[in-house]
User: Fold this.
Amino acid sequence: MSLLGFLVLKVSKPRTQVRPKDIDLFFTSVSASTVSSMTAVEMEVFSNPQLILLTFLMLTGGEVFTSLLGLGFAKLNFTQQLISKNRVNTLQVPHHAPPNAHESIELAVVSVPQSMNREQIDREFGSHGIIVSSDDKLKYNSISFLGYAVLGYLMVVHVLGSSLISLYISVIPSAREVIRSKGLHLLTFSLFTVISSFSNCGFLPTNENMIVFKKNSGLLLLVIPLIYLGNTLYPPCLRVLIWFLQKVTKREEFSYILRNHREMGYDHLLSGFHSLLLVATALCFNLIQFVMFCSMEWNLDGLEGLNFYQKLVASWFQTANARHAGESVVDLSTVSSAMLVVFVVMMYLPPYTRFMPIRDQENDTKKEKKSPVDYLLFSQLSYLVIFIVLVCITERKSLKEDPLNFNVLNITLEVVSAYGNVGFSTGYSCKRQLKPDGICKDSWVGFVGRWSTEGKFVLIMVMFFGRLKNFCTRGGKAWDLSKL
Assistant:
């Protein structure tokens, strides 16, 4: 997807006369497909067709969309398991079987095409004696119903969200003037914003991200729920949706989904107890950040001109985005170092982190087999340290000559932001140069936009690693850090 996005961005015509570099186009494509929103070029460089392409990359790279594809594969895999089980049971019929077993023996020579779905199997081979238990039928139908529920969840959020944002911009003159002055299409902006926020990418068609809309509290309040619905609170919301559908339709499949969340094989489907813990943990993290941000950054330069209500909404919006969304209403380079450290911690935590003060009986009963490779892999923190060291090596000249912009804290925030697929960045300011070169020009790009080509490639690796980190979360098991 990243390579395809890069090729389309390269052959399509940008809005400006100056074309971005190939490395920056590939970086942007990777950033969109991994929903990282790290920016190496200004977003207003891209034309409307290019924005539509980035919208497609963000949609297909979002966690909810990819999990929907996973449900489709799970359904196909379960169908093949049923076929294989019937074949095995048939082949085990002994040669001295009684005469009434001839139907099962005949079943052994039936050829079942791999592409057949469950309905075709029932219609084509029901006469041959393929027996599917009621439990298997219920599980199969439950997987299908779960897929329909996720698809409906995805469509309703996007259609309703884009409609509300379009309506708000059409009604509020200040927001409408921003869209008009930047030459953006209202429908493109609405879809782009909804898909970016729901997939927790953080891209916006404006150079300033959400800074230009910081006084439009209504728009910020429309975007905040999208951030929660597509990330930290997706499992609880999905469970509430299935519970509601069960109450309305009285379908047995929805009851089965609620009772057997583990058997469904859908990682985003948590038990009711775990969903409550996730909600409590997520709200607690957001409350801690919100209180700290209001107490430390209330008089921030980026919040000047806002009234009390607007500051509260802007602060809530900024802290809500620290958990993997990455949209901003303030310049992060003006935020205190203590708050940046808090953002780094929040970006590092996985979206479904939850505090469990009591023993988890559900996980205790689950025995996991670990291969030797699990013990040879590094931990996530180890990989992050390696990436930070690599960036410090590639940017060692800038670290020496431009220490106010290129410092370890800014590099750490950039790397952890890419790893968490967030998109927070302190940016780059020509005013902070110790030795002004006279040709430096400020632009609305992320800090990585000023890195060398080698440094950008390292961050590309970090974005891919962060998007696929679920496949190597068991690393670091071989280390024993005890004192004895």
